[in-house]
Amino acid sequence: MRLTFINGSPRGVKSNTGILMGHFLRGFFEKDGNVCDVEYLVKHRKDPGVLVDIYKKSEFVIIGFPLYVDGMPGSVKQFFEHLAPLVGREGNPALGFVIQCGFPETHHTRFVEKYVAKLAKRLNCRYLGAILKGGCEGLAIQPPFLTEKYYEYFYQLGRAFGLEGAFDATLCAKLARPEHLSRENLEQVIPFVNSALWDMLLEQNGAKDKSFDRPYQS
Amino acid sequence: MKILILNGNPNPDVHDFERYLARFTKILEEKGHGVALHTLRDMKIQPCSGCFNCWVKTPGLCSFKDDADKNARAFLAADLVILASPIIMGFISAITKNAMDRIIPLIHPYLIEVNGEVHHMKRYDAYPRLGLLLEKESCTDDEDMTIIHDIFKRAAINMHSSLDFVHYTTIPAEEAADAVDIH
Question: Shortest Cα distance from A159 to chain B (angstroms)?
Fold first, then answer.
C-alpha cells in the first residue's frame, strides 16, 4: 500500500502531529511493501498546486493537524480550498484524518471531526475516519508514563491500517479516552498542566512575572 | 455599540457579498453603531506558526509583526465582532480562520474549568460577543450550517465570549442589521 501523509501542523517537522504519526507509521511499515510519502503543508505554502497534484495521484491520504481555535488551522483550511476543483471527482483518494489537541479531553476535537467527515463526502472520497486525541501539547516533554499508551495505540492503528487499509474503530475509541474528565481528574490535571507545562516554559523564557501582561489594555 | 467587522471574503470580484456587506455596514452606522471594518484580504496576516511565544515568551504579544496586531487591538475594543465570510468548502474562508487563529495572544495559556471542561484562562477582563455573517455556497446544506455554528459556539467559549448569531446573506441586509440590535 502507498500512503500519503500530509502533516498540516504549522510547526512542520517538529510537531506533536508528526510525533504521533511517527508511531502510526512504525506500525504501518511492518507490512512488507508498504510505503509512505510524508508531505509537510508548511513547505508547500508558496506553491500549493504541487501538493494538490500529489493528493490527486494518491490512493490513500491521511491529513494530520492540531486543533486551532476549535477548528483546523487557517493554513489547513487554505489547503482544503485548493482542493475545491476536485469536488465530486471520480478517483479521489481514500481520505482519513488525525486531529490532536492540547486540551486533555478529546471531546474538543469532535466538532471539527464532523467537518472533515463532510469534507471527505464533498470530495467524493472514501472516508477512512478520524483518529482523535486530546492531551497532546508538549508531547516531547510529557513524562513517558503519560505518552507510552498513546504511542502504543498509534502504533497499533498504523499496523492495522497497513494490513487492512482502514482505521480500527475500537482502537480509535480507546485512544480517544478520556473524552471528558471527571471532577477528580479536572482538579488534578489543571494544576498539573499549568505548572508542569506552562510555568515551566514561562520560567525557561524568564517570562513568568509577565505572564499576565495586557499589552492591548486601553 | 462598538462593532468590528472582519471581512473574510478573499475575492473582491465576488461583488454580491461586497455589496451586501457595504449595505449592512451602512445600516449599522445609521443606527448609531461605531463600526470598524477590516478587510482581511488587504491585510498582511501570517498564519499562526504554533510557537506559543505569545503565551510563554512575550506574554500577550505575537512574535510576528504584521496586521494581526490591528485585529487584536480592535477585537478587544469592540462590544461585538462579526466574522463576515463566504462559505468556501463548507466553512468560513481560510483568511477568516487565519485571522481568528492569530487572536490567541488575547487569552492566557493557563487552563481553567468551564462547565466541566478544560478551557483557557482570560488575559483581559472582558471580551466582545461574536456573530457570523455568511454567504452560502450553492451546495451549503443544514449539516454545513450546523457544523459551522457548533464550531464557533465552541470557539466562543474559549474566547470567554458568546456566539450571538449566525446570519446568512439570504436575508435582507436590513433584517440582518436589525437582528444585531436585538442581540
Answer: 30
